[in-house]
Amino acid sequence: MMEIEKREKMEIGSLSPFSLELLQQKKDTAEKEKQNPFADFSDVEILSWYIHEQKHTNQENERSVRTKKEYERELSRFIEQLLAHSEAIDVDISEIREQSLFKSLESRHLRRYQEWLVNDSPHVLERGQYSPATISRKTTILKSFFRYLYRVRYINEDIAEGFRQATVRKDDRPNRDLGPQDVVSVLRAFKQINQPVMFSIVLMLTATGIRNEEFCKLKVGDVKSDALLGGYYLDVIGKGNKKRQIPLKQKVYDSIRMFRYARGLPSLGDAAPTAPLFTTSRGTAFTPTYLIAYMNKEMKKVQVELGNIEVKLTPHVFRHAFAITSRLNKVDVFDIMRSLGHEKLETTQIYLEKVFARERHAVNQWSSNALDEFL
Question: Which backbone phi and psi does 20 adopt, to 5 degrees?
Fold first, then answer.
């Protein structure tokens, strides 16, 4: 196994440089010769093709750069760990088939890897177990990849069956519930220390329900004047490049202007439409990772004031706050789903599980009884 290990370790860190055009030519040549289109692909090439293949005529409909990076990171880590810890995982490959690690793997290897990842990997030994959601995400990416290899006949068996189900129970999900009073406490805390940047970010995320990545991609030109209802709205491009229009309450619009003034940016009327709407202190657009890090750092400055809030305050938590506040204001769940840009009602219901549970609790359905005197 040493020969393939050496080759994979040299190449696995450089997936992106593979030219998709060259891989497409290689695939086309194989098809022309009536061969399996991926017969001459190496493991690294098929991995690169899987991640970066263009499936749509419209580039905007492809996987986002962030998603591609996540897939590349998880799949690269899988290979590195499988090779580096082959003895501990018990990767008992008796024969390397066609100089390919993927073609040499069998169902038991994937099962053993998953067991090792959950129980004995360096992360578990040093930091403790992964969350169920993390294991579920990793398993989903790996299973999807190996199912793809089987579907395009790069491998001959559906070895993805070796993975055990990694479902996330309701009680395993991280607590992201933030009520309107909690948001008010956060806004007041930043107003008290005169931190307009964080005040605006929190208000924007909560009052629009936009995703972290959507926030980071906003341009000045995405703020539109609403000729129908008056005021302003945002043109947002969400997952799958689906567009939606989000109304901006006047105070939210004012907070955007306050943010730009605090950062020393041109006013909305003077700025180029393609300029980032929200920027870092260096004038560049936020990235999703940096926004989380920045908010985490700033939240520490008001830690004492927010001592009663147990939830870790991330951009996604304020998206949950939008959903919860909407429901508490009797907004129909389908309207909340559409406003958040969710494709499935089940996703929105996950955001609102605890609200639904309390709404439907028997005690909240009492109308009149002998306890009225004390209730």
Answer: -65, -30
Q: Minimal CA–CA distance to 294: which of 151, 364, 197?
A: 197
| 81 and 200 inside one domain | no
Sign of CA dihedral 25, 26, 27, 30: positive
- Let me know whether 219 and 346 are in one domain: yes
Do 159 and 28 belong to one domain? yes
Check whether residue 109 and residue 71 sit in a common domain. yes
* CA dihedral over 176, 182, 187, 190, signed as positive or negative: negative
Phi, psi of 308 (to 5 degrees): -85, -5
- 269 in a structural domain: yes
pLDDT in tens, the chain (375 residues): 434 444 444 344 445 546 888 899 999 999 999 999 998 899 999 999 999 887 766 666 677 777 888 999 999 999 999 999 999 998 888 778 888 999 999 999 999 999 999 999 998 888 888 888 889 899 999 999 999 999 999 999 999 999 988 765 555 455 678 889 999 999 999 999 999 999 999 999 999 999 999 999 999 999 999 988 889 999 998 887 788 999 999 999 999 999 999 999 999 999 999 999 999 999 999 999 999 999 999 999 998 888 888 788 999 999 999 999 999 999 999 999 999 999 889 889 888 888 888 888 877 777 776 676 666
Cβ-based neighbours of 199, under 8 Å, separated by 6 or more: 187, 190, 191, 255, 258
Which residues are bridge partners to 100 per DSSP?
97
Residues spanned by the domain of 162: 2-168
